[in-house]
Amino acid sequence: MQWFPHLLAILKGKTGNAKLAAVEEAISGLQLLEEVFKKSSKEKHFFGGDTIGYLDIALGSILAWIKVAEEIGSIKLFDEDKTPLLVEWVEKFISNDVVKGLMPEINKLVEHCKVLQATTWNVNSTN
To answer: What is the pTM of this model?
Structure first.
């Protein structure tokens, strides 16, 4: 499953059926990732166990944009009912002292995304 294009569709501000489809596919992808997390974490906090590893960093690198998509789209991708382990992972990941110092401010990214929607991405575009 290609997950990122669905996130990008949400960030671009798609509406109607396009937005609904993108949200459903994004959540479906996160549910698959939830299963992977359950198997690989062995009931620890991170994908590789007790400490942050490569997969945590890979997902963590787009975490801010996922949060922006939630804000922009007025949706909830990380849902306590559908992906409870990932919700907990997000909290553990962003509360790590090193990560805290590196995470961008979501409000600034939201504003940047709105500019991109209005100019580069053109909300009315079919792309």
So the answer is: 0.85
* Structure-block tokens of residue 68: 């922006």
Count of structural domains within the chain: 1
Short-list 122, 3, 16, CA closest to 66: 3
DSSP three-state, residue 93: helix
Position 126 in a domain: no
| Number of other CB atoms surrounding residue 97 within 10 Å | 6
pLDDT digits (tens, 9 = 90+) for 38-88: 999 999 999 989 999 999 999 999 999 999 999 999 999 999 999 999 999
**Calpha distance 123→119 (Å, rounded):** 9
Residue 127 lies in a domain: no
